[in-house]
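Design request, tokens follow.
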């Protein structure tokens, strides 16, 4: 199993998951053209995609979903709350499949468990995805590390987790007060220390790699996010566990296991 970030941050998110049986996107939050460019850079042929799985309706996760689905005849999976909130911007899709939050479904041989996350959108989810004995978790937009999130992300080999902002950079930065409140709120985004605290609770002997994601370009820096996560994952790091960042304007790194 292999995961490659195509983009991650407030301006667009997408991850490509590849197995020997299929290639699937989780979110497609750049324009169709940019999505195709990033896939090209990652060596992924959009004609070979088996599906797009959508976490929630915010445009930084859905901007390219409709275009890609129509152009390359890709089926799309999302829950009804997301569809109701996103259908006006997503438009027609090649084939729409609904999943139910909390209920496992299959996409091209992948076993996908969508789980509820606290975020200011209709029925937002994270995903636990498994293929054979490989297990992956993706949670990129959540204001709080709930017990459910901890339970679901524990015992996985690879975890993609939001590390959105440095609290001081957000406090002292240029965002208007209301937006600062929204970002740091219970339904907003995890800060570096909150993300690091969650990682500490889910680290296990199984865990091999952590990808920090959805970093704010305005209110965070990769070195700060990495330092914070690595400090809380001391033993994991000493045992050569990987901690890396997914960035807004770069493809990769690819994690394979
Ligand atoms: Zn969001
Ligand atoms: Zn987002």
């Amino acid at each position: 199993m292999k995961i490659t970030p195509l983009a991650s941050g407030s301006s667009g998110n997408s991850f490509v998951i590849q197995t020997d049986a299929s290639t699937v996107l989780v979110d497609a939050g750049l324009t169709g053209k940019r999505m195709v460019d990033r896939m090209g850079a990652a060596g992924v042929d959009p004609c070979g995609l088996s599906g797009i799985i959508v976490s929630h309706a915010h445009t930084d996760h859905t901007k390219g979903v409709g275009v890609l689905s129509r152009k390359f005849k890709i089926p799309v999976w999302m829950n009804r709350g997301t569809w109701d909130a996103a259908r006006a911007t997503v438009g027609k899709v090649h084939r729409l499949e609904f999943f139910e939050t909390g209920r496992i479904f299959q996409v091209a041989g992948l076993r996908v468990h969508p789980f509820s996350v606290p975020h200011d959108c209709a029925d937002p989810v994270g995903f636990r995805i498994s293929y054979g004995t490989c297990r992956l978790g993706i949670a990129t937009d959540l204001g709080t590390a709930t017990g459910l999130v901890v339970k679901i992300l524990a015992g996985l080999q690879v975890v993609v987790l939001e590390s959105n902002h440095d609290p001081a950079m957000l406090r002292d930065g240029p965002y208007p007060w209301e937006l600062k409140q929204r970002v740091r709120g219970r339904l907003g985004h995890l800060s570096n220390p909150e993300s690091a605290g969650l990682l500490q609770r889910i680290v296990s002997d199984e865990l091999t790699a952590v990808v920090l994601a959805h970093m704010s370009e305005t209110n965070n820096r990769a070195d700060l996010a990495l330092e914070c996560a690595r400090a809380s994952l001391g033993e994991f790091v000493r045992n050569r566990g990987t901690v890396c960042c997914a960035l807004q304007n770069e493809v990769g790194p690819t994690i394979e296991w």
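Comment from the thread starter after seeing the answer: thanks! The chain has one domain: 2-256.
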